[in-house]
Amino acid sequence: MSGYTYITLRERPQLKKAAAEWFHCKWQVPQEAYLACMEAYLNMETEYGWYLCLDGDKIIGGLGVIENDFHDRKDLTPNVCAVYTEKEYRSKGIAGRLLHMVVDDMKSKGITPIYLVTDHTGFYERYGWKFLCMVQGDDEPDMTRMYIHG
Question: Pairing state of beta strands 143-149 and 4-8?
Fold first, then answer.
């Protein structure tokens, strides 16, 4: 993991546009949606933040925290979203370190537990997440796994 830098967007707000574009390219959620969430975070309107891993100036991993990650359980909030590591950087512990970073940051702000939805099984458990229940994703035909940490 040497050579990688882990930051919150507040530490490098100048990366906002690049980060919004990067997340948009990974998840096809409109760039404007990411920008709106990032602006609220940077303007201190919310503590739901954005976390990045950089290799030099290149974004190679990231995730965010939002109110609800497009599912029917509006009571389960906030949600970690958009977890992604570039293919060539996988299996190096980047996602795990970002997940620990977000859990620690949210706990330090009194925000616990936190949730995430995923189709992965076995991955998040390695980082202390526990399966909670199945939720119905917005406009999704199948149920999705909901995890909790905290």
Answer: unpaired
C-alpha span between 129 and 20 (Å, rounded) = 26
Which amino acid appears at position 117 of this protein? V
* 147 and 133 Cβ atoms separated by less than 8 Å: no
- Tokens for 111, please give them: 């925000």
DSSP code of 46?
A: -
For residue range 67-100, list pLDDT tens digits in order: 998 999 999 999 999 999 999 999 999 999 999 9
Angle formed at CA 76 by CA 87 and CA 65, multiple of 5 degrees: 40
Tell me the C-alpha distance between 65 and 81, whole Å.
6
pTM of the predicted protein model:
0.94
Task: Give the closest residue to 120 by CA, choosing from 150, 149, 87, 83.
Answer: 83
d(CA 23, CA 139): 21
End-to-end CA distance of the chain: 26
